[in-house]
Predict the structure.
Amino acid sequence: MTTELKTLNTLLVANRGEIALRILRACRTLGIEAVVAYSEADRESLPAMLADEAICIGPADARRSYLSAPAIISAALVTGCDAIHPGYGFLSEDDAFADAVRAHGLTFIGPPADVLDKFASKAEVRRLLAEHGLPTVPGSGLLADEEQALAEAALIGYPVLLKPSAGGGGKGMRMVRSPRELAAVLPICRSEARAAFGDDSLYLEKWLEDNRHVEVQVAVDKYGHGVHLWERDCSIQRRHQKILEESPSPAMSAAGRKELAERAIKAVVAAGYENVGTLEFLVDGEGNAYFIEINCRIQVEHPITEMLTGIDLVATQIRIAAGEPLGFTQEDVPQRGHAIEFRINAEDPAHDFRPGAGTIERFNAPGGPGVRFDSHAYVGYDVPPYYDSLLGKLIVWAPTREGAIARGHAALSELLVEGVTTNIAIHRALLRSEPFLSGKFTTNLLDRIGSAAFLAAAERPG
Ligand code: ADP
C-alpha cells in the first residue's frame, strides 16, 4: 500500500489550510507532483510554500477562487495536472464541478459526478439507504409547502427538526416545537438555505433529544469492493458543529459497533457508492443507531481513523479515483487502541467563539509518542479572516482511552499559539470534565449549559 501510483503524474490541490497540506503529504508518498492552487489571501500559506508548484486562482473571496470551477480547471490545465483534489468543503461534493473536471480530461479525486448527484439530496439519500436496510430517524421527504410540512410534522410528532436538504456544517437547522412555530420558521429557513447552499429544499426529522453522533468511515473501489474502517464518535459539538472526535465510540459495545459498521458498508455498496465516504448516525440512549446523512468526501476528522487502522485515507481516495482496486480486505482493517482529535480553531471563547484573525507571533506544535499535529500554522503566519477558522488538528493515540486522554493533556499543555485567540481552553476543560471522562455525554453537552459557562465551571477550583 506504500507503492507509487503510476497512473497520475501531477495533481492540483484545490483547497487551503491544513487539508491542502495533508493532500500534499499524500501526493509525496505516492510519487505524485503537487501543485497548490491558492487565493491572494493565501499567497504566504504553508501549503503554497511547500508545494512543488503554486498557482494563484483569484482573490480572497472564495466565490472567485476556491469556489470558481473555471479558475481551478484552467489552473490545472496550465500547470499540466492530470487530477484535481478538492479537499473538503468548497467544491468537494459538487457534481457539476466533478463532471467539468472529467470533461476536461482530468481525474476528480472523489466519487464520479453521477454518484455525487445520486447522494446529493439528504432527504433522497435517507430514502435510498432506508431501502437498503439502514434505519433512519423518522422524517419526511422534501416539503412542497406549509400545508404539507404541517401534515408531515403531525405524523412525526413534535418536536421536529427542520433541515436544509443541501445543507452541511450544522448550518440552517431549526428545532420546532409546535405547528405555529413551524409555520413561522418555514419561510425563514427556506431563504436561509437558499442563501447558504443555493438550494431551498427542506425536510423534517424527529428531534432526538439525547443523542450521540457516531459515523462510519467507508472506502469502496470502482469494482464494487468495499470495506468499512470502523466508527468515530463526534458527539462533542458546539451548535451542531464538531469540535472533538474520538474512536472507538465510548458509547458502543464491541458487538454494536461491528454491527453498525457492517450494516453501513453493505448498504452503501448496494446503493452504488464509490470512493471514501462517511455515513453519519444518531445513536439514542438504548444504542439504536439512525442514519442521518452521508458525506461524499474526506472528513476533517479522518486522522483518528488513520491512527487506529494504519491506513492512509487520502492516499486511498486518490488510488480509488485513479481506478486502482482497493488492494486490501476487511480483515486488513484493524481498530487498534484509542485516538482523540481536538480541532484547534482561531476563535474566541470569551466572545461567543467569534472567528479570530491576526498574525501568529509564537507557536509550538506538540510532539512525542502517539501525537500528530496537522496544521498549516507557523510563526509569522497571517490568519486570514475570510475562511473557516480551523487552524489545525491535534490528534493523540494510545492503547487505551485513559492513555489517550493523558496524552491529550500533555500535548495540549505543549501547544502554544500566540497572536490569535484559539479554543484550546475548551479542550483543556473538556479533558477535565466528568461527562467527558466517564464517556457519558450527548451532542448537547456544551450547548445545554453554554460553552462559556462550561469553561467558567472548569476554571473554578475544586
Ligand atoms: P450537517 O450536515 O449540517 O452537519 P447533520 O444532519 O449531520 O447536519 O447534523 C449535525 C448535527 O445536528 C448532529 O450531529 C446532531 O448533533 C444534530 N442533529 C441532526 N439531526 C438531529 C435530530 N434529528 N435530532 C437531534 N439532533 C440532530
In short: Residues 179-197 form the longest helix (19 residues). The chain has a mean pLDDT of 95. The two ends are 50 Å apart (CA to CA).
